[in-house]
Amino acid sequence: MSRAVIFSLAAVAALIVVPAALAVSFPARVLNALTSRAGYTIERDIAYGDLPRQKLDIYLPDTVDADTPVVVFFYGGGWNSGSRDGYLFVGQSLATTGMIVVIPDYRLYPEVVFPAFVEDAAKAVAFTRARIARPDGSTPPLFLAGHSAGAQIAALLNLDAHYLRDAGLPASAIAGMIGLSGPYDFLPLEEEIYRKTFPEAVRAASQPIAFVDGDEPPMLLLAGDADQTVRPANTTRLAAAIEAKGGSVETKIYPGIRHIDTLAALARATPWKKPDVRQQIIDFVQAHPGR
User: Fold this and answer.
1) 126 partner at 20 to 30 Å CA-CA among 136, 165, 169, 237?
2) Are 144 and 178 in contact (CB under 8 A)?
3) Which residues 6+ apart lie within 8 Å of 121 measured at CB?
């Protein structure tokens, strides 16, 4: 593909106006079309549960050993859209750095409401940990990651211990959590669809910031100051709460970066300048070999 064609695709992705529900899926399709198939293999359509959306894909780097870190990545989409098929570029980006990448689907609104999608996510993590366990029962470092709504899911798994505990995992199973442009402190809800997605009786429990205790696995929180979809104050408030409790958190707010940009920065084929999200993730994973 010529450099001119790549730039024209970038222009389309940047300029076209799409509904909010498609704001991630459209550029993801463009990025996937540019993604190399070299350096990794994919195991697709692996069931972690009995329901149709309880499936995941695993991206395996060409070289894997007993200590290869594992990242379970949850995509965004407002808790009402998205599919693991759209995130080839994420799997490729991280797998070619030497990480095993797991991308699960999970049930969405209106099929379910909170907390069902977080429970699905916990089930996917438990399945992953069982699959990667060494003969002695130990595991390589296991990380949670997500963008947008997926970051909220990953953060709740990291901060509210009952989800992993109910799935049969201790909090110590997680080496760290990586959040890209996530909603962590997003009440009150202004849009009707989100009031329905998060019923009032359980709404307070949907806020990751409510569960900070300072003993959670380390967190890396990245966001852009030009994000008009999820305000970066979600990130700075959560980071401040973790620091106040004596927990471990690294934060970076990128100037001029929008909501989708922190995700698109993972794509390796795009030639334009982008934030160092991928390198931040690599450094974080290497610095946290497990607890």
Assistant:
1) 237
2) yes
3) 74, 104, 106, 153, 154, 157, 163
